[in-house]
Design a protein that fits this description.
209 residues; single chain
Length: 209
């Protein structure tokens, strides 16, 4: 899942040739000749990705966080102030210069909550689908996203129970489960066994002990 979020950046540089090479570092940037040589030898597609990946996802996360605050009817002034403080947090400010998987995961976690909040008001199938898809992508990027899926699913099911359309159960289950099964299939290809099966086996062995 993490790799999927990197593909567009590589494609953009390959298609438009933003960086033809990576030879733009020198010892005035880093006082270490071998490190400068290593940086300049990196594939230009990855150089482009490293420079724009973190800042773009972090900027989008800050934007979504602002929209979440506005959905709670905070004033524009207070929303901007809290968003500014959020932008200075470690997961946004420091990690914005990296391609760690927590950077895109944060965006999809915030998106899932934003669409959940909208579903509270609209009871729309579109919002529940987007909530589910965002949670699914969160899990695809980092498996520990399952914790967020469990918690938000409980509240979503309670809302769906109160809604008029029970089809929303299906619209919620299909996207998130599709991403989970996709992740498990990728794990099977990589390691020759399903993650769910390995986890169940470990749990069973632990209970026997």
């Amino acid at each position: 899942g993490h790799s999927i979020t990197q593909i567009p950046f590589i494609w953009i540089n390959q298609t438009f040739g933003v960086f033809q090479d990576s030879n733009f570092w020198d010892t005035s940037d880093f006082d270490h000749a071998h490190y400068v040589w290593w940086r300049n030898s990196i594939n230009p597609d990855f150089t482009f990705m490293e420079l724009f990946y973190g800042p773009l996802f972090s900027a989008l996360s800050v934007t979504v966080f602002y929209l979440i605050l506005r959905s709670f009817n905070f004033t524009q002034k207070n929303s901007i102030l809290v968003t500014f403080l959020f932008g200075l947090s470690t997961i946004v400010w420091a990690y914005s210069q990296t391609t760690l998987n927590v950077v895109p995961q944060l965006l999809f976690v915030l998106l899932s909550y934003l669409f959940f909040k909208r579903f509270q008001k609209s009871q729309s199938a579109k919002d529940v689908i987007f909530t589910s898809a965002s949670l699914g992508f969160t899990f695809l990027i980092r498996p520990d996203g399952i914790l967020i899926i469990i918690i938000l699913s409980i509240f979503t099911f309670l809302l769906i129970k109160q809604s008029k359309s029970k089809l929303n159960y299906i619209w919620y289950i299909i996207p998130v489960s599709s991403f989970v099964f996709l992740f498990d299939y990728i794990e099977f290809i990589r390691k020759g066994s399903f993650l769910i099966a390995r986890s169940a086996e470990k749990s069973f062995n632990h209970l026997q002990l």
